[in-house]
Amino acid sequence: MEENKKSRLPLILVIVFVLILAALYVYLYLLPQISGSRTENYIVSYAKIRESADLKCILARNETVYTSGGAGSVSYYIEEGTKTRKTTRIADVYSGSRQSFYAQHTGYVTYYLDGYEEQLHPNRFQELDPDELSELGDIVPRSDKPSQVDSDKPIFKLIQGDTWHVLILVPSDMKGQYSSGQRLTVEFPDGASVPGRVSYIKDGQKYQLVVADISRWYDKELQIRTVKAKIISSETEGLLIPTSAITTNGENYGVYVMGLDGKYSFRTVDVLIEGSKETLIASGGSVKLYDEVLKDARNYKE
Asked: 204 and 66: one domain?
């Protein structure tokens, strides 16, 4: 008899455990649904919200174009995109006699040319007309490196300094979104992005010219003159909740968070960005990632 009682004890414990789980399920889920009091919750998630715009951009640099003095054959000594020191020998042109070309300053050697080097030089930014720039078509620099060159034709160019510029053309209905000294990020179509700072702004009738200084190297920079890029003016991280979840207790704004017992408690929130459907709140407060909040707290009463 004593052995039979011992053998049935584990089975009894299992049955009791299952009954407890069933009771909890009925209490937390079935009863609220039967009584119509079951409320809908939202699980708090992480989010990163960007303020951005896809705008036409023009890349500009401090560029010096070196042209041949006469027609002849060309020998090149420096690879594309190489940073060279002053007096480095870049190329020779043979036209009866040898004409050697040396770097007049430290800079990057490139053979991508498009004819806009002088017009878009940083020293001439104040002369540029934003509306005229907006009418420029797609400009694709060419890299020929010809073995033969005619007289007074470009051979290569040297880019001085590590800072280059993105000329952003902002439509008139977006004026005021950028300010001098503002930090922003330029994201190119291939996904690469570089940080920049606004250094100059000029208004036109239809467009505003916003110049951003860039000091980080971009691999395809020398191959691009015009591009449609994503301009990211701000990026905010936090916790995402429905806007309808936010209510007030008479003193503070907050949400109702469901505890393990199925009951709701009011917790304050710090709103970062409020939208019509979703709101971003600061992390690190009383509301945590993966908390369950009452989705519609507008008519909730404790």
From this structure: yes
Q: What is the Cα–Cα distance from 252 to 266, expressed in whole angstroms?
A: 10
Boundary (domain end) residue, out of 182, 200, 233: 233
- Share above pLDDT 70 across residues of the chain, in percent, rounded to a whole number: 87
Q: Fill in the amino acid letter for 68.
A: S
C-alpha torsion 283→286→291→297, nearest 10: -110
128-187 pLDDT tens trace: 999 999 999 999 898 888 899 999 999 999 999 889 999 999 999 999 899 999 999 999
Find the length of the chain.
Answer: 302
Considering the domain architecture, whether residues 8 and 144 belong to the same structural domain is answered as no
Predicted TM-score of the model (pTM): 0.74
In three-state secondary structure terms, 74 is: strand
Total domains in the fold of the chain: 2
Q: Within this chain, do residues 96 and 9 fall inside the same structural domain, yes or no?
A: no
Q: Is 274 helix (H, G, I), strand (E, B) or coil?
A: strand
> Residue 90 — left, alpha, or beta (φ > 0 → left; ψ -120 to 50 → alpha)?
alpha
Domain presence at residue 77: yes
Per-residue tokens: 164:
């280059």
Strands (DSSP E) found in 81-206 = 83-84, 89-95, 97-102, 107-110, 112-113, 142-143, 148-149, 154-160, 164-171, 183-187, 193-203
